[in-house]
């Protein structure tokens, strides 16, 4: 469907997902793309296409630049790698130290809402925000997967090894017990049983 000026309005998502036509309503903000290449997509497929574009172009360029030693510093912030309740890895970034814990809580809550009953497991934190995140994501672009909870990476040994070579820096080590303490309080409120052996204080 088009307006008088030829712009697309309304209609259904033109994306085919694993060979099946989506057919959902086009997102409220309209089709995606410049005026000369408009694609009618629903909200979900707009997000997926954006992620794919970023993954294909921005992150791979950053990874290549980092590999060649062309980056002399990164944008402020921290990049984290966490083990998700669905057994995949998330690579994300925040602008400030105090956002790390907040972000991990938000992600945990998203998974609990989706029916998962496990906490996340932080694997590594790197200095550097958005640009560092892009460089690491680009390095592991071949492991990237996408589902309704966003972009993730399959836990391939090379990715795990990369995280284990970094781990959580000493000055941020406090984040782990703080997160675990939060989970111990949060989980029961969401009707999740925590095994008695996990996270227990010593009771002599
Ligand atoms: Zn769609």
Structure write-up:
- This protein starts with 15 loop residues before the first strand and ends in a 15-residue tail after the last helix.
- It is globular and about 55 Å long.
- It folds into 2 domains: 1-41, no CATH class; 78-189.
- Helix content is 38%, strand content 15%.
- The mean pLDDT is 90.
- The protein has 204 residues and is of the alpha+beta class.
- A hairpin with a 5-residue loop joins strand 3 and strand 4.
- The strands form 3 sheets. It has a 3-stranded antiparallel beta sheet with strand order 4-3-5, with helices on both faces. A two-stranded antiparallel sheet has the order 1-2. A two-stranded antiparallel ribbon has the order 6-7.
- Zinc ion is lined by residues 13, 15, 22, 24, 41-42, 44-45.
